[in-house]
Automatic annotation (TrEMBL):
InterPro entries cross-referenced by the UniProt entry: SAM-dependent_MTases_sf, tRNA_(Gua-N-7)_MeTrfase_Trmb, tRNA_methyltr_TrmB_bact
Pathway named in the protein's UniProt entry: tRNA modification; N(7)-methylguanine-tRNA biosynthesis
Name of the featured protein: tRNA (guanine-N(7)-)-methyltransferase
EC annotation from Swiss-Prot or TrEMBL: 2.1.1.33
Biased composition range(s): Basic and acidic residues: 7-19
Keyword rRNA-binding: no
Similarity remark: Belongs to the class I-like SAM-binding methyltransferase superfamily. TrmB family.
Gene3D superfamilies registered for this protein in UniProt: Vaccinia Virus protein VP39
NCBIfam families: tRNA (guanosine(46)-N7)-methyltransferase TrmB
GO terms for MF: tRNA (guanine(46)-N7)-methyltransferase activity
Keywords for the protein's UniProt record, in alphabetical order: Methyltransferase, S-adenosyl-L-methionine, Transferase, tRNA processing
Residues involved in substrate binding: 174, 206, 241-244
EC supergroup of this enzyme: transferase
Length: 269
């Protein structure tokens, strides 16, 4: 097993914050990873991820070195021009935490008329998605390797997204870690403000307690309306992931939630 890491994975874990792997953790099929709490100095919000010394294959490392400049956009503090980024005007869907990118790639292949902006912090995952893009004729994906909270806040203009995908986000099962969960009222309000009217937020999880939290938080957001009566059926475009399959085998349920942006104006930021 190759232990090569990228410099951004080099944060040392505080020993008291070790986090067991979740069934949905990206990349946990090919290596043992320890998730730890770390908030880089200067950050003003609680991170929903931790830097980890993750296994990265030589192929993923090579893809990062060779393909990142071609398919990724560096984080910036100004709004991104989506049409320029993708080289065309098309509905743009943001995916947060794409893990190894298999779902991202499959959906982008199924929906060539849409743009997909994938945000992920995990080096091996970014390398894996770059490899998938390189080995296929899928051209409607761009990647930002950065904290999605900051990307949405700083780079996405209000009222511009056609959709948001959040699939199997880290469940942070311990109660004292729930504050790290991505689906929280302030972030959902921010995401809702970035959706165009009619745009959607699609979440999926295999953690019942997180599904309940998602349903509560999304239902309470005034800019969103549920498209289903409670949980939604899995739409045809979302393939069943490896982790989902394993979760189902372990007896976990899977809950999809699809909410739509109403035409109501977002409050001024
Ligand atoms: C449990 S994995 C799920 C991966 C994938 N969506 C799937 O279904 O297999 C969650 C992923 O979200 C990423 N992540 C968590 N918080 C993030 C954030 N704030 N910005 C970007 N990525 C994040 C993690 O690095 C991890 O790869």
């Amino acid at each position: 097993m190759n232990n090569q890491t990228h410099p951004t994975d080099e944060h040392s874990p505080p020993p008291d914050e070790k986090q067991p792997l979740s069934t949905g953790a990206a990349g946990d099929d090919d290596t043992t990873q320890i998730r730890t709490s770390s908030a880089p100095s200067g950050s003003s919000h609680i991170r929903s991820f931790v830097h980890r010394r993750a296994h990265i294959t030589p192929g993923q490392k090579e893809a990062l070195d060779r393909l990142l400049p071609q398919w990724s956009i560096p984080y910036q503090t100004s709004v991104l021009d989506l049409a320029q980024t993708f080289g065309r005007q098309a509905p743009t869907v943001l995916e947060i935490g794409f893990g190894m990118g298999e779902t991202t790639h499959a959906i982008a292949a199924r929906r060539p008329e849409d743009n997909f902006l994938g945000v992920e912090v995990f080096n091996a995952g970014v390398g894996a998605l770059l490899k998938r893009i390189d080995g296929s004729d899928v051209r409607n994906i761009r990647i930002i390797q950065h904290d999605a909270v900051e990307v949405v806040r700083d780079m996405i203009a209000p009222g511009t997204l056609a959709g948001v995908h959040i699939y199997f986000p880290d469940p942070w099962p311990k109660k004292r870690h729930h504050k790290r969960r991505l689906v929280q009222p302030p972030f959902i309000a921010l995401l809702a403000s970035r959706l165009a009217p009619g745009g959607y937020i699609h979440c999926a999880t295999d953690w019942e307690n997180y599904a309940e939290q998602m349903l509560d938080v999304l239902s309470a957001e005034p800019l969103l309306a549920n498209t289903a009566n409670g949980y939604a059926p899995r739409p045809d475009f979302r393939p069943q992931t490896k982790f989902e399959t394993r979760g189902l085998r372990l007896g976990h349920g899977v809950w999809d939630l699809i909410f739509q942006r109403t035409s109501q104006a977002a409050p001024a930021a």
